[in-house]
Queue: 2 jobs
Job 1
Amino acid sequence: MDDYAKIIYKGKTYKLPVVTGSEGEKAIDISTLRQKTGLITLDPGFANTGSCISSITFMSGEKGILRYRGIPVEELARHSTFTETAYLLINGVLPTRKELNRFSVLLNDNSLVHEDMQIFYQNFPRASHPMGILSSMVNALRSFYPELQTVEEEINKTVTRLLSKMRTLAAMSYKISMGHKVIYPRPDLPYCANFLNMMFDSPVKPYRTHKELVKALNVFWILHADHEQNCSTSAVRVVGSGRVNLYAAISAGIAALWGPLHGGANQAVIEMLSDIVKNNGDIDSVIKRAKDKNDPFRLMGFGHRVYKTYDPRAKIIKKTCDRVLKKLKIKDPLLDMAKELEERALTDDYFIEHNLYPNIDFYSGIILRAMGIPTNMFTVMFAIGRLPGWIAQWQESADDPKWRLSRPRQIYTGPTKSKYIPIDER
Ligand code: ACO
């Protein structure tokens, strides 16, 4: 044991190995801690806990770095497509042209969903949030597409089915919520253009996909494709560790992503910016509320558990926003408001001291608005983007020969052994 940490407890010294990652990150391996010392660790929110060893995504919160399988996200956003990035995350390497064509054909072949699933949509109450619907529908896929014969066939088929059908399900849910005719996927359109067409084409007004919007959607989904052990990915890994089917694990990831502290922040940002615009641009009171410890309000789209500098994804999305709005000649007052709010927050002592910078959600909603995506669908858009990451992370844990059931411990602080008191004597 070359590199180790020592724990001294009750006069005895215990040596615990230190594990080093390929980017020099270090962790104390405490897997034998309880067995050796009787102690467990306590780490609310797991801010100091590594839950796995992974070769998928590297991020540095201090340097503002994000790489998928070693490739900087900036390069992927510039040169790749969402389908190619999904392939990279899931298979570990960039595809050859032949492999990418084959992957696209598979995605097209799996894009239709069972007609009976449309009946489910009709029965959700009108005001249902699309994330709740999506989570239920993805879980329901298992009933429509039961287990296949071999493990390999099962994994390959389920992965392509999910990637393709979740996009169809999302567009279907929007069309049905509007009371409009469902538009079927088109085999001649690539992944992102196909999605926009399913969302916005109609028998009365044919949709013409705009090159700039298709590029922006590719960038948006590439930037969301993975983010190592975040809340929803951890949910997928934890639920998956009980050996449920992949649909159920992904459905849990969607549910976790829904929350406003996680993926739901993109919707919350737009609501916050709209409120500021409605209140005649009153940024002062928003900043004041965000700093007030007695007020639960937070500046949405600001702050991150890992990034203590500018989120690299936010930089790209901000630039993409500017480009798309300029090219499409769209004037969105929310973009101006977002920039003004960002400037104010970044020069405010509270935000400086707390290392609070815009995260990806701060500007992402503005691009989605430019595409015509309704606000309550924003988190669904995030979920489609995060899907390749969830799949890759689930697969990595499933391939690990040491895959164990996730089962954290706790420190109990409730009553010690107490007597049962019959109801009439209480
Ligand atoms: N506005 C005001 N204060 C904030 C904010 C914010 N957005 N974020 C963090 N803080 C403050 C906290 O009040 C706390 O202050 P204190 O130490 O003086 O008590 C300190 O910064 C640390 O905050 P924590 O909540 O402990 O940080 P944590 O790492 O647990 O939370 C989180 C990260 C949830 C993202 C937080 O920054 C937040 O709520 N941001 C707003 C929601 C948001 O944008 N979420 C999207 C994140 S990106 C993603 O998931 C896609």
Job 2
Amino acid sequence: MAEELLRIRGGSTLHGEVPVQGAKNSALPLMAAALMCSGETVLHRVPRLTDIRTAGRILEGLGCACRTEENTAVIRQHGLSGSEIPDAEMRRMRSSIMFLGPLLGSAQECILTMPGGCELGPRPIDLHLDAMRRLGAEISEQGGRICCRAKRLRGARITLPLPSVGATENVLTAAAVAEGETVLCNAAREPEICDLARFLNQCGARISGAGGGTVTVAGVGTLHGTEYTVMPDRIAAMTWLCAGAAAGGCVCVSGAVPQEMETALSVLEAAGCRLRIRDGRIELRRTGVLRGVRYIRTMPYPGFPTDDQAPVCAMLSAARGTTVMEETLFESRYKYVGELLRMGADIRISGRTAVITGVPALHGADVSAMDLRGGAALGIAAAAASGETLLRGLGHIDRGYEDFAGVFNSLGCETVRLPVFSASTEKTGCTA
Ligand code: EPZ
């Protein structure tokens, strides 16, 4: 497919309502877990994303049938035919590692390579592998191929050195079908963990304590298919709210779970936005000036989410005053800042700290997304900027946002998806 970009005409206030898509970071582990469930699993509110298509292909390669129509995925498992995930699929996304626990649990073997995904600095998988070893897996590595085998998984007491979201998810899936009880300490507490536990319990698992630091899993041997609706995407919801805050106007997201977004929403309020929250609707109004927020630090849930860091920095680059942002989870999550500078932003990076000095106005520019949330951040800045922005690297944004251009248009920000070639031709007037 020809490479595409977005042409965003910024500078107008935004108005409208956006129904929140299903959460990518929940739908992907749920799809992986479905391979442990005999019979049919039906997942609703699955976002239409390239990562979801990758997960579907991985499932099919392992012998499941996977059909997605609109926002529903139907996965049928009547016996697996493989236990290896091709390197090409592993490289496409971080979530390919989410197949480790389910495959070990149901095929007693999982062969994989290092997962890809957004480049945010080193993203090792040592915690995943150590946890699988604790459950009885033997792991060997040769030429980058990691072979994990376990004739029988046995419940264990596992303490994670840090509350890794992915490692917690792999422990939950593997332990769900292990022999005996697993107690996971220092587990991640993200809402996506609770969604996975709810789904697994509906498939026959016995998991308690998800959402807290200690999760107990009583192994049940086998799981069955079910029908389940994926939780709403709290990061996508925050992205649309940040766009409204940056450009001004009134943006409402519907179908969200505001309780899962409290820390992020408090930042919007501190920046001078007015929020009205009722029945899963979050309405943001920004008519006056946007203000800097002094200090924000990314933390595991319920702290301020690292995935909101880039959208919020973009928003605050158009605020009055200074914000200090500290990124504590990933080493290299400021790649988008260089692109924001092209739009007139004033941001200085020192290690994991960004000092954002709001400028009176951003202007459109030719910029490139380098990862998913950084790409969304550039979109937000483009909506607030005067003039036209060409946003390249759309492949990153398509991994996590369902119809980014459609949402911007629905809010009144004129956004066109164009093949890269025709966009450059239009700009230069050159057809040769
Ligand atoms: C999940 O990544 C999300 N991805 C990320 O969202 C999110 O930023 C992150 O959780 C934190 O909330 C998915 O759910 C697919 P971690 P994950 O394991 O599971 C270190 C987005 O934009 N670590 O909690 O990979 C790691 O390097 C994406 O949607 C190890 O050292 O995150 C990081 O510093 C980007 N060894 C920290 O833990 C390991 O074995 C947290 O990572 C695993 C992790």
